[in-house]
Design a protein that fits this description.
CATH superfamily of the largest domain: Histidine kinase-like ATPase, C-terminal domain
CATH class of the largest domain: Alpha Beta
Strand order of the largest sheet: 5-4-3-6-2-1-7-8
CATH topology of the largest domain: Heat Shock Protein 90
Number of helices: 15
Largest sheet: 8 strands, mixed
Helix content: 25-40%
Shape: rod-shaped
Strand content: 15-25%
CATH architecture of the largest domain: 2-Layer Sandwich
Number of domains: 4
Radius of gyration: 37 Å
Distance between the termini: 114 Å
Length: 485
Amino acid sequence: MNPWFEVDKKGLAKIVERRGKIFILHELLQNSWDLDKATKVEIEIKPEAGKPYTKILVKDDHPEGFKNLTHAYTLFAESEKKTDPKRRGRFNLGEKLVLALCDSAEITTTKGTIKFDKKGRHHSTRRTMGGTKFEAMVRMTHAEAGEIITEANKVLPPMGITTIVNGCKIPSRTPCKSVGAWLETEVADGDGFLRRKYRETSVSFYNLREGEPAMLYEMGIPVMELGDDPYHVNVAQKMPLTMERDGVSGHYLREIRGIVLDGMHDALSEKQARGKWANEAIEASENDAAIKTIIERRFGDKVVITDPSDREGENIAKAKGYTVIPGGSFTADAWDKIREAGAALPAGQVTPSPKPFSPDGKPLKIIPLSEWTIEMDAFTALTRIIARKCAQIENVIVEFTDDAGWKFNAAYGKLTDSQGHMHVNIGRLGKDFFIRLGGMEGQLRLIIHELGHHFGHHLEESYHDALCRIGAATVKLAIYEPDLF
């Protein structure tokens, strides 16, 4: 009976080649690491002199060797690794992809030997006393061989398994921190189908060495670069990888970054907190303190969010030394997390502008004219004189409120080019504002400050120009018309 499928070895090799030759080492290495009783894995990478070939040898000391030698050449055979999320294999595919890149290869184990060459596949009873040896000749330049040797030192050997490359032991690396986390993994069900499920596992973070890009690891095997992330991340279980096993989904990567932020936020530098990775990390974070740390590292400890509903509130915040975070700094999901964590609030909630003039503003408790004192009458007259003679504002409506809950001494609203509206809060200024010692200076400061708002807000040059112009004109008025004061 003819088989359903046939594999074009050259075509498969071209597809596998895209992953780079380091893929060969990773696949063979993880097979040895997955063996429960292996304590040592040795790798030799020897370029052939004067030839575009490299000899690759990988051997381990697992006492039983290959459990089923036919798995060395059978694509997608049922693998016991599928049921164990702590083992790297899935489809019984890795060795076959490696063989696609080999000109010749030989696998010798406790069950016998299989040799692959130009004539096909050959079996032999030659066997090892323990462990498995994979030996192959791969078309590879000396430069590619050098890259593999360099990349080999980036793996994270598991505890208890000595890993040696060309006679040199790959040094173990101690994580700066390990945390428990619930992450998606792949596990075979009772029928052998791989299903995705969430499972608690360990996630470890490693400091970057000089010049190292941050990497995402699956049980010590590099999977992909992480960009500007601050740490290497090693997940101690199967990850939901792409078919080529060289990446994860955007959703999974966000979860990883959230775990990094929650676990390492106290150690982040200002530069690390400014990385693009942090924006995604905030979206997935479950730690309010971590989110607050990112905001503080990036923007300082006095921050507000830009507030389209209260632009003057933004200006007040800036004048008080707050950093206003632009709306485009984060995604909508990240902003939701930032607000929920209380890491930053809109300017209108932190430094609200006075809003007695807006339709949605809370009505102020206005003091009726019948309750005005002679001092309030005099203040109103002085305000209108300075407005007309020093600021060229023809008329200013003055009202007094007694509202200690309103956080402002006074507020000014421009009605037209020649008319304004000023509210003065006796509840904040105190009822002796008009009669205490030095009251005239305090009144003039208040009047000039508020009239300046006819021409701009606190941070505008027009506002400061108006203050200077009104102040100078008031001095001149006091000199030439002192009776007005």
